[in-house]
Design goal:
By secondary structure, this protein is of the alpha+beta class. It has helices at residues 5-15, 18-56, 61-80, 83-99, 104-114, 157-166, 171-177, 191-195; strands spanning 139-141, 146-148, 235-241, 244-251, 258-268, 274-279, 288-292, 296-307, 313-321, 325-334. The strands form 3 sheets. A 4-stranded antiparallel beta sheet has the order 3-10-5-8, with no helix packed on it. Strands 4-9-6-7 form a 4-stranded antiparallel beta sheet, with no helix packed on it. A two-stranded antiparallel sheet has the order 1-2. Helix 2 packs across helix 3 (61-80) and helix 3 runs antiparallel to helix 4.
């Protein structure tokens, strides 16, 4: 049955009554002083022995306090427990302080000073990494077993022997993985190469020897590649033009090629509509860029170029009479 809070409170008030406490203290004081005197004597002697032991063992002064705290815990256990219980509790303290970085052998010696004999803390099994003759034969020792390499090409046999079954992939991807090589300066890879993988051997099985037969690479034009934001092969053109409510040809078109403009600018002296455009005549088209409707300097750089149709030329337009209108463009002309 659970006692009520009121009953517990009244009982506590009786215990801490000043007169009652005074009577109990006067009666127990001789025994209390005797017990504390014995404790002070024993713990001082133990701490002296422990300090001498750890200093003899070369322990850093920063860790001496930790060993003393450990010794006090073992001493307290000795006053509370005995037999198997004492050994179990002492072993728990040894393991705890070993995990905190104290030396296991030294913890056992300190416990022996108190009359307790725990075992050294468990130590993780070390892995032998010493070179041995088998390493010269291509045997690599791991934490679970040894891994055998294939002579000459040095692939791990555990990968070679189990690749198709343990690592299932589409046959096209397996074929590509077997034909990796370093690219040279002459190699230009197109998207089409990724869609036409190197054929598998006639038997249709994975063959490590295909590593010696590199994947065919197509030498192709720049038009089939992803355009880079920066180009080092731009043609730079700077001059003056005199458009008058019409376009003036800046770069002539070439059959089968496109003009790609990466930067462009001009300076109009008179208020009016000005812009570049792609087309085949001086009549403006809607393929225009850098449009402004006032005089002044305009210049733009394009991460993705402005591109005309195949065979188009590049024109500069003005809706008003402009004389000697400065302009400049950076462009390439390619298929």
């Amino acid at each position: 049955m659970v006692r009520g809070a009121d009953k517990r409170q009244r009982k506590f008030e009786v215990k801490v009554d000043p007169d009652t406490l005074a009577i109990q203290t006067r009666a127990l004081k001789p025994l209390m002083v005797e017990g504390e005197s014995q404790y002070f004597s024993e713990i001082t002697a133990l701490e002296t022995k422990v300090k001498t032991l750890v200093e003899t063992e070369g322990v850093s002064s920063l860790k001496v306090r930790d060993y003393l705290n450990y010794a006090r815990e073992i001493y307290k256990l000795k006053t509370k427990f005995s037999g198997i219980t004492l050994n179990v509790e002492a072993q728990l303290r040894v393991n705890k302080w070993a995990d905190r970085g104290l030396a296991g052998s030294l913890l056992v010696k300190i416990a022996n000073l108190v009359g307790v004999d725990p075992s050294p803390p468990p130590v993780a099994e070390a892995i032998d990494v010493i070179d041995r003759a088998n390493r010269l034969l291509g045997i690599v020792y791991g934490s679970l077993d040894k891994l055998q390499q294939k002579p000459t090409t040095l692939e791990l046999l555990v990968w070679i022997n189990n690749f198709p079954s343990d690592y299932p992939l589409p046959s096209s991807q397996v074929a590509d993985l077997k034909n990796i090589r370093l690219l040279s300066a002459l190699d230009i890879v197109t998207v089409n190469n990724l869609l036409n993988p190197h054929p598998v051997s006639k038997s249709g099985t994975w063959n490590i020897d295909n590593l010696l037969n590199p994947h065919p690479v197509t030498q192709t034009s720049r038009a089939l590649l992803v355009t880079k934001p920066e180009r080092e092969d731009l043609s730079s053109l700077g001059s003056v033009a005199s458009p008058n409510n019409a376009g003036v040809l800046i770069v002539a078109g070439v059959t089968g090629q496109k003009i790609k403009v990466y930067d462009a600018g001009f300076h109009g002296a008179v208020d009016g509509l000005h812009y570049f455009y792609f087309g085949t005549s001086t009549s403006p088209t809607t393929a225009r860029f850098c449009s402004v409707n006032s005089k002044g300097f305009v210049h733009k750089t394009f991460v993705q170029p402005r591109v005309g149709a195949s065979g188009d030329g590049l024109y500069l337009f003005s809706s008003v009479a402009e004389t000697n209108m400065p302009y400049d463009v950076g462009y390439v002309q390619e298929t």
